[in-house]
Design a protein that fits this description.
heterodimer, A: mainly alpha, 2 strands, about 60% helix, B: alpha+beta, Alpha-Beta Plaits, four-stranded antiparallel β-sheet, 4 strands, rod-shaped
Chain lengths: ~600, ~170
């Protein structure tokens, strides 16, 4: 085995998948006729989108006066929704970039869908500043280009312009990153498709061949893109927070905003990924690829970032009091106990209190609770933005201009429309592209597939880690395979030579040009599974029982005690009373070392696997 | 390249493939190319592939972005159309930082991705000949140029290294 298999980490691919199974499972959703639930979802999404488009048209035709914004409260649902969506759009690139740099293998199960989600969420977000400016048809004035008006340039000192650059860059980079990952997978779809579909996927896959040099460059590109996208993710929400923090509004101009916004963005982004993935994995039957281990990992991120957000809320409150600055004190008093107390309460309950339930492993690993809490987090983060924006503006310096705000039907319609837009795109994405990154999942199969970690059948495997019969053999392997791989100093178990077919017949086909050599059926898993039947006393049935107990290789077998082997035989189905495993360890040790001659001598002296 | 006749073997597992590549190196058989469904670690040094220089290109593009943004904004606000915003100096360097950073990332990313597709000969609408449809699924392929090795030698090589199939194709 060239991949290090962690004895402690949970497998990330269950169901003992082969490479072909992975292709089959992940491509088939794009090849089938859509299910009824998909069609219903799509109709709902398109209808919501239609409502949204109507409301946007209404806004542009009649003007921003159709919204309930007023002189005091200039930012309402529009900017709340903008910040909410852009926050959601942070999980995808975080998963693909930061987790790639940290070598988190679980990212491969969710990165594709999370990146798609990011792109769609950023589109929804970008819509709001676009229409909020009022004259949407001249919104291109924001971009600096040599124009006939002077040329007159935008104000590069303004955080609002920084925001434009941040979001355009973020959208572009996320799209490039996502598509570059998709190209090899589109090639997989292409090579299974026929007719017109093949033409489409041929176009989409850019002529990908899978050549070694292409893969090398592809990995470099992914790594460097991850490297530049990581500070980018952090910069985008930092700059969004500058929209507020650089102003002189009490409650807004705080230096804590950038880190607090970034943590909040990751928090809400992961919540949305979970909401989507829990539904997606169920509908597309991806439970083997998006496992409870994936869900738990994401819940841990939610817990960590949610706690950061909670600390930030409390810090804000404390500093408002401690600063002795009355305007700041009033702003926070007003948030908690003013006319919008309910949104502050919602924010605190949903963002600070409920995520703390994820301290409990049972809740972190429960699909039901995760789904429920992910929605609660989404609601809570919407309240947070509403509290910061509308509540703060409602009570400004001059009590005579204090006001109250609730959205008009047009604003609500546009918000609904962004959900329509988001889900329309997302549902189309699940039909067109593999929702889980095929090539990347295949590349972690040997290190994270359940059949390789000996955890394929949990019922057989109660041993404590240190007592685990496999543990010693794991320790014998280097845990720094990555470094070793890259230098090319690889050590292989001899098993690959053992099963190499040497005496297979060659059948020449009529053309005489094509020769197919058939290989022993076990060769698919050749290096990870030794042919235990080579041990005298082990037949196909016992070999199966041993495999089920996690013993795949000669090395593992040689390090398993006779008592344990006897226990496996006793607890397995089938009558193995006549079999005595006393010599198996000695035999398999020779086999593992490749001492076939010695093994043969030994077997000549053995009687049915027993010492004579 | 013109029409090229390739003999290729398909393997079922990347670790058998790596052994086979080693064995080809030992026997001094020149490998035309190796095709895999996912990046196989440890393959590049065996094939003698030099480290990619894509990241150097990325750095150059990024630098170009930095200079474009910073010099552009500086020129606009000091020479082309100086405006005083909120009593700040014309050349307000700290407030140029966010846009300079964003354009650095933007230029580096777009530049690298475009370069990646161009040097690989990939792009929208590109038609390549593929050796086998299963290379993007679960087969690992080593290809030899027919000019470099006789059919029978190739066949015996593939057979002895555990290939599951051997084929020939014009590329």
């Amino acid at each position: 085995m060239s991949s290090y298999v962690s004895p402690i980490r949970e497998p990330l691919i269950t169901g003992s998948k082969s490479y072909h199974d992975i292709t089959e499972d992940l491509v088939s959703p794009t090849e089938k006729v859509p299910s009824a639930s998909w069609v219903i979802g799509f109709v709902l999404a398109i209808s919501s989108l239609a409502v949204g488009l109507f409301c946007i048209a209404w806004t542009i035709w009649h003007g921003i006066g159709t919204w309930n914004l007023n002189r005091t409260i200039g930012w309402g649902w529009d900017i709340t929704n903008f910040v909410w969506w852009i926050g959601i759009g942070h999980a995808g690139t975080l998963i693909s970039a930061i987790l790639l740099l940290f070598r988190q293998k679980w990212r491969t199960g969710v990165n594709r869908a999370a990146e798609a989600m990011t792109i769609f969420a950023v589109i929804c977000a970008a819509l709001f500043p676009g229409i909020h400016v009022g004259r949407a048809w001249v919104v291109f004035y924001f971009f600096p280009y040599p124009n006939t008006r002077g040329p007159l340039w935008p104000n590069f000192n303004s955080p609002l312009l920084w925001d434009l650059f941040a979001i355009s860059t973020y959208f572009t980079v996320s799209l490039l990153f996502w598509y570059t990952g998709l190209v090899p997978d589109f090639a997989t779809v292409r090579d299974r498709a026929k007719g017109f579909r093949k033409k489409i996927y041929n176009f989409l896959s850019f002529g990908w061949t899978g050549a070694a040099k292409h893969w090398q460059r592809w990995e470099y590109l992914s790594l460097v893109l991850a490297g530049v996208a990581t500070p980018l993710v952090l910069s985008v929400h930092t700059i969004v927070s500058f929209d507020f923090a650089t102003s002189v509004i009490p409650g807004w101009h705080t230096t804590i905003f950038p880190p607090y916004f970034v943590a909040g963005a990751i928090f809400s982004g992961f919540a949305m990924v979970l909401t989507l993935m829990i539904v997606t994995r169920k509908i597309l039957n991806l439970q083997d690829y998006i496992t409870i281990a994936h869900i738990e990992s994401m819940n841990k991120v939610i817990l960590a970032t949610g706690t950061i957000v909670g600390v930030a809320y409390l810090t804000e409150l404390f500093i408002a009091w401690y600063s002795g600055y009355v305007y700041e004190q009033f702003a926070f008093f007003n948030r908690a106990l003013g006319p919008y107390w309910w949104s502050y309460f919602g924010m605190m309950a949903c963002n600070v209190i409920t995520p703390q339930f994820f301290w409990f492993r049972k809740i972190r690993r429960s699909i039901f609770w995760t789904f429920l809490l992910s929605i609660v987090v989404n609601i809570g983060m919407w309240f947070e933005r509403f509290v910061i924006i509308a509540t703060t503006l409602a009570r400004d310096y001059l009590p005579s201009s204090w006001s109250y705000y609730s959205p008009s039907w047009v604003e609500m319609g546009i918000y609904l429309g962004t959900f329509g837009l988001f889900f329309t795109f997302y549902l189309l994405f699940t039909r067109v592209a593999p929702v889980v990154a095929i090539a990347e999942v295949k590349s972690i199969l040997k290190s994270s597939g359940d059949q390789y970690s000996g955890k394929a059948e949990p019922g057989h495997h109660h041993a404590h880690v240190t007592e685990d019969p496999n543990f010693k053999s794991y320790l014998n392997k280097s845990s720094f395979d990555y470094a070793r791989d890259d230098k090319g100093n690889l050590s292989y178990s001899q098993s690959s030579q053992l099963s190499t077919p040497s005496s297979q017949g060659v059948s020449d086909e009529s053309s005489g040009m094509t020769t197919a050599t058939s290989v022993a059926s076990s060769s698919a898993n050749v290096t990870s599974t030794d042919d235990l039947k080579k041990i005298e006393g082990i037949g196909p049935k016992i070999a199966g029982a041993l495999n089920a107990a996690g013993i795949m290789t000669f090395v593992q077998l040689s390090q398993t005690s006779t008592e344990r082997l006897q226990e496996i035989l006793d607890t397995s189905e089938g009558n193995f009373k006549g079999n005595n495993p006393e010599s198996w360890a000695v035999q398999s040790e020779l086999a593992a070392k490749g001492n076939w001659d010695e093994l043969k001598d030994l077997q000549d002296r053995l009687d049915g696997g027993k010492f004579a | 390249m013109g029409a090229q006749r390739l003999v290729y073997g398909l393997y079922n597992d990347e670790e058998i493939l790596l052994e086979a590549v080693k064995s080809a190196n030992d026997k001094h058989i020149e490998i035309y190319d190796v095709y895999t469904p996912f990046p196989v670690h440890g393959l590049d040094p065996l094939l003698g592939l030099a480290e990619s220089r894509l990241h150097i290109a990325g750095f150059v593009y990024g630098l170009l972005g930095t200079l474009t943004a910073f010099l552009g904004m500086s020129w606009i606000f000091t020479k082309d159309w100086p405006i005083i915003f909120g009593g700040k100096p014309y050349w307000a360097v700290p407030s140029f930082i966010p846009i300079t950073f964003e354009l650095t990332v933007l230029f580096a990313s777009i530049g690298m991705v475009v370069t990646f597709y161009i040097i690989n000969g990939l792009g929208p609408g590109v038609e390549n000949n593929y050796l086998d449809d299963r290379i993007t699924d679960d087969k690992f392929c080593i290809a030899f140029d027919s000019n470099d090795i006789s059919n029978s030698d190739a066949e015996s090589f593939f057979r002895s290294t555990g290939a599951s199939e051997v084929h020939e194709k014009d590329l």
